[in-house]
Each structure stands twice: as C-alpha cells, then as structure tokens.
Amino acid sequence: MITKKILVMLMDVAIVGATGYTGAELLRLLARHDDVDVCYITSRREAGKHVFKVHPHLKGVDKYKELYFVGDVDKVDADIVFTATPHGVSMSVVPKFLERGVRVIDLSGDYRFEDLSLYEKYYNIKHVGLPDVKIAYGLPELNRENIKKAQLVANPGCFPTGAILAIAPLVKEGLIEERVIFDSKTGVSGAGVNPTETTHFPNVNENITPYKITKHRHAPEIEKELNKIGRVKVSFTPHLAPITRGILTTAHAFLTEDISDNDIIDIYNEFYGREFFVRIFSDDIPRLTYVRGTNFCDIGGFEVDCHGRVVVVSCIDNLVKGASGQAIQNMNIMCGFREEEGLLDIGLNP
Ligand SMILES: NC(=O)C1=CN([C@@H]2O[C@H](COP(=O)(O)OP(=O)(O)OC[C@H]3O[C@@H](n4cnc5c(N)ncnc54)[C@H](OP(=O)(O)O)[C@@H]3O)[C@@H](O)[C@H]2O)C=CC1
Ligand SMILES: CC(=O)N[C@@H](CCC(=O)OP(=O)(O)O)C(=O)O
Question: Which intervals hold domain Semialdehyde dehydrogenase NAD-binding (predicted)?
Fold first, then answer.
C-alpha cells in the first residue's frame, strides 16, 4: 500500500524573555499559529523549568509539551527570534543573532530610532550603535513594504501604535494644524511583570494617574513616525488606569478646512479600507473590551466641535496590537505567511 505523506515545513522561532508579559503573550498567540514551531524560550530566573510550570494558562497546548526554558541566550538557534526584553538588554543580544543571519523582531525601544541621539536623550542610556542590516519600523499599516525586506523589525511602542493609527489619515491628507495632542489611558500590564510601588494594587485601584506628563519617551517616537507622512508637533500625556490591559487614546487636533464628521469618516475608511486589523467605528465609540486579547486597533469618535477641533479615539490591547500581536503580524509579513495567521481572536462585550 502506498501512503501519501504531506510534509509541512514549520519555521523555528524563539522567544528571548519568555517569562515577561509580552513573551507570555507571544506564546499564547503562537500556540495557534500553523506555520511556526516554538523551539527555544529563555529566562534567567526560570531556566530548566517547563513552560507549563511558569505559564499554567498554556497547559494542554500540545506543541509546547517538550518546551523548557533555557538560561543561556547564546544557545538559542532559530529562523526567527523575538526579543521580548527590556530596552538596553535587547541591544546586547540582537546583534549576535543578526550576525548569524537570523531575522529578529525586537519588542523594545532599542531599534525604533534612526537618530540615536534622540534615543539616548529619552531612554537615558548609551546606544551600542545600529547594525548594518535593513531595519524597519514595524507598523504594518504604514510601513508594510519595508517590513517585508527587513532583517530586523523594531516593533513599535504600545502608545505610539494607538496614537499614530488614530491620526495618520488626517496628517497624510494635510487636514490638521501642526500641533496634535494625544491623551492616553493605559492598563498596568504595560509596566511589565515586575511589581513596583506605582503598580501596587491600592495605588492603582480607583485612581487614574497621569505620569511623565510632558516627557514620556513615546512622544518623540510618535512625532518622528508621523513626520514621515506629514508635518506635526506632538504633545502626549499617558495615564495609568485601574485596568490590566488596553490603551485608549484620545487625539485632539484643529482642522485647517471646514469639513464634516462624515467627511472625516470617509477619509478613514479610504485610508484603512483594506487593513484587516483596523476597524473604523463610524457611528460608535470604541471600547477597550472590544479589542481585549485581539490584534485590532479600533478607531472612532470622529467629531468636530464648534471651534474646529477634531477628536478621534483609538483602542488597542497593549499586549497584542501594542506588542506581541503586532510582532507576529510583522513576522507573518517578513515570512510571507498570511498576515492574520495566529491573530484571529475577537474581543469581548462586556
Ligand atoms: N508590556 C507592554 O505592554 C509592552 C512592552 N513593550 C516592550 O517589550 C519588552 C518586554 O516587555 P514586557 O514583557 O512587558 O517586560 P517584562 O518585564 O514583563 O519581561 C521582561 C523579560 O525580559 C527578560 N530579561 C530581563 N532582563 C534580561 C537580561 N538581562 N537578559 C535576558 N533576559 C532578560 C525577563 O526574563 P527573566 O527575568 O526571567 O530572565 C523577562 O522575560 C520591553 O522592552 C517593553 O518595553 C512594548 C510594548 C508594550
Ligand atoms: C503602564 C506603563 O508603565 N507603561 C509603559 C509602557 C512602555 C513600553 O511599553 O515601553 P516601550 O514600548 O518603550 O518598550 C510606560 O509608560 O513606560
């Protein structure tokens, strides 16, 4: 009897920093990705432990049944590596992978700035220098062609993802004055897995706390990316909200032309018409629950007040479209996989 065997070649991927929140989220999403195998995960603290011991929510995922944490990043061998590590750490591990021809998607801020003096000013650390490979800023809706060709993708910051997508169509069309204000509310998981006084439950619960009111490091990231499509000066203030996940951003700008709410909706529908992960809410206000656990960026509001101020609201899940989901979207683009592969979760209501 002749048996037919169909051999499916899976891409080997590794996650450096897989005990953190974005590393865990990569593991959750990749569990249902049909084109990849997760072959290495790293941790200094949990080296030697089985993945289910550290992340019990993954129990039962068949493809992870032989997956253990390794402590030594140099042992990692894969086709694609996600570095889900703090800024400063990423730049110490990424170059070693690039030298071996491995493609890397870095979730930190280390490779988001072409101008390293801006990086050093806002991150307050010295940069080791950019590697001599093609680097792309990983916001697919604005930079897909460059992502396809990149060896290193700098995954955007969580606030920049929601802010840039909220205002890009109006910037591109030149319909707003130069100054744009972004007011964002974020969930506590944005601060990472290690607790601090700021993230301590009694300090977060029943409070909304503005922080880094005029000096957050995502302000220059938002500004330099928007300046690739138009001319803007960005003001940005984040607030910590008593929620685990999600970023709601309200963008305020002043129109240069007398256009209606409906004209604005048409511009957004046209700009994002073919984008699977951007949903336009033409007659509703986006909610964080709708995007929870998903790779969607929901955009709505679209109101103009009597002074010509346009208000646009965006919602993302900071750990998905704001980090790990977008990182997988970037991997899919780099590898020629279907862009939505592994990212088809839908949100909640409530
Ligand atoms: N949380 C979010 O919403 C977002 C985060 N980001 C960025 O993504 C990156 C990861 O964030 P997040 O998951 O929240 O961070 P966490 O603090 O939750 O996790 C950090 C991970 O990095 C590992 N790590 C830390 N230091 C080192 C080191 N010196 N060598 C090797 N591994 C190390 C830790 O592993 P261990 O201690 O076990 O060794 C841990 O797995 C950061 O750069 C963050 O700024 C970007 C967008 C959104
Ligand atoms: C709640 C909270 O603390 N959020 C973090 C998000 C930072 C982040 O994600 O950092 P990078 O994208 O620059 O790597 C903050 O505001 O610093």
Answer: 12-150
In whole angstroms, give the CA distance from residue 83 to residue 85.
Answer: 5
Confidence of residue 27 (pLDDT cuts 50, 70, 90): very high
Same domain? For 15 and 98 the reply is yes
ipTM score for this prediction: 0.98
Q: How many A from CA of 19 to the centre of ligand 1?
A: 8
233: left (phi over 0), alpha (psi -120 to 50) or beta: beta
Containing structural domain, residue 61: 11-156+323-335
> Is the whole model's pTM more than 0.95, yes or no?
yes
Asked whether the beta carbons of 17 and 40 are under 8 A apart, the reply is no
169 and 138 within one domain: no
More confident residue, 8 or 313: 313
Whether 11 is in the pocket of ligand 2, judged by its Cβ within 6 Å, is: no
| pLDDT tens-place string over residues 202-229 | 999 999 999 999 999 999 999 999 999 9
**Long-range CB pairs of 233-236, under 8 A, 24+ apart, other chains included:** 233/178, 233/179, 233/180, 234/163, 234/180, 234/182, 235/179, 235/180, 235/181, 235/182, 236/159, 236/163, 236/181, 236/182, 236/184
Q: Which residues are designated catalytic?
A: 158
Rounded distance from Cα 109 to ligand 2 centre (Å): 9
Tally the domains of the chain: 2
